[in-house]
Each structure stands twice: as structure tokens, then as C-alpha cells.
Amino acid sequence: MRATWRLLVAGVIGFAPLAAAQSLPLRPEAANPPSTSLIRDIDGERSDVRFELRILLRHLEGRFLSLHGNLRIDETVQRADIAVSIDSNSVWMAKESNAEYARSGEFFDAAHHPQIRFQATAVPLSLFREGGEMPGRVTLRGVTRPLTLSVDPASCERPGDDCDVIARGTVDRSDFGMTSKTLFVGKRVELSFRIRLRETPAPETPATVSPTPGREHRP
To answer: Which of 2, 44, 178, 182 has the fewest beta carbons under 10 Å from its own?
Structure first.
């Protein structure tokens, strides 16, 4: 009987730590710190996108008068996703007949593809200060192709706010179905982005409400 009792006690003692361990809450894994995101809109009035192409022996330049977009900034990792949308109908060139050709179905085909888009993801914010290569994608005439822009080193401490962000790239127009007049119009189209951001609105200061004076309690 005593042997049985000793075995029972030993079993209870041996089971107790296991039960206690099972009842303890599991230690959570170290969680990633929450990311802090900020959206900065592109200032379309102070930004533009220019293009240059060769027609015969001349180099002609044009620009788009309407664009919009934003930077979605992850302040935790100091990177940004960039989206720029350009109104292909807003082409301006010194000679209107050239602008009409640029908008036509032989070139940008603005009637069927009114937007030209550029997107880049996880771009280090330091790139806008130091300059360098920015891989992205351009969508033109409904066709998406890789496009790497070369970003100029900034001339100020806060590029986009106090000075322009300037980036350049080149596309082959035949990659986007622009295959007409190859004897007269060059295949390469040079793109130049000049970007400014809208000012960030100052955070609203909560209104302070003066406490309503209560009646003095007299004993």
C-alpha cells in the first residue's frame, strides 16, 4: 500500500510541472514594429514631363501640361512607392502640327490611351538626395515595359520640397507599337521628369475648451 501511495505521489509531482508549463501562455514572437506611412501628392502645377525625339535631322522637344500622382512613403524603412499618371492629350510642342502628330494614333494615341503611367516600388528615399538608378515600369499605349530612370543628385536638402526631383530615361517607341515613319522619326524617345510635391498640411491643433466654472460650495 505504501509503495502504491509513493508511486501516486511521485506521479502527481512529476505531472505538476508539465501541467504548469502547459497552462503558461506561449511567448509571442517578436513583432515587427508597425510601419508609419505618409502620402505626398505631386504638385502638377510645378511639375512636368518632357520628351524629345528626332525627326529627320532635327531634335524636337515637347512636354505634357497635365500630370498627377503621389509618393506613398514608409517612414519606418525610409522607402517610397511612386505613381505618376500623365495626360497624353496634354501634349504641347512649339509647332501645333507636331503636337497633333504626337497625340495621333501613330504615336501616343491619346484618343484610345489617354494616360501614360510610371510606377516604381520600394525606392530608397536617399536616392532622391544622392541620385542613382530607379527601376520601374512605364505603361504607354496600353503596353507595360520596364523603365529605369536616372535620378540626378539633388541641389537641396529636401528634394521635392525645396528643389526639383529630376529623372531621365529612354524608351524605344517600337516596343509600344509606335512603328510608323521609321525612316523619318527616330526610335528613341527621351523622357525627362521634373517633380515637385505639394506642401504637407500642418497638423491641426485641437481646440482647447476652457472649463466651465462651477458654483462655489459653501458649507
So the answer is: 2
Grid-cell match 524608351, residue found: 171
Sheet with 58-64, strands from edge to edge, namely 37-41, 67-74, 79-87, 115-124, 132-140, 143-151, 165-172, 188-195, 48-55, 58-64, 91-93
Residue from 136, 209, 213, 200 nearest 168 by CA: 136
Please list, residue by residue across 101-138, b when 16 or more beta carbons sit within 10 angstroms of its beta carbon and e when fewer do.
bbbeeebbbbeebeebebbbeebebebbbebeebebeb
Q: Per residue in 147-165, pLDDT tens?
A: 999 999 999 999 999 999 9
**What are the pLDDT digits (tens) for 184-217?**
889 999 999 999 999 875 455 555 555 555 544 4
Which grid coordinates are listed for 27? 511567448
DSSP 76-95: TTTEEEEEEEEEGGGEEESS
Q: By the 8 A CB rule, do 120 and 134 touch?
A: yes
Furthest-apart CA pair in the chain: how many Å?
A: 112
Is residue 201 one of the residues assigned to a domain?
A: no
Q: Which of 197, 116, 204, 112 is nearest to 161 (CA)?
A: 197
Domain contains 215: no
144 pairs with which residues across the strands?
A: 139
Question: Does 213 reside within a domain?
Answer: no
The number of domains in the chain is 1
Domain that holds residue 132: 37-195
| Domain at 141, CATH number | 2.40.128.110
Pairing of strands 67-74, 115-124: unpaired
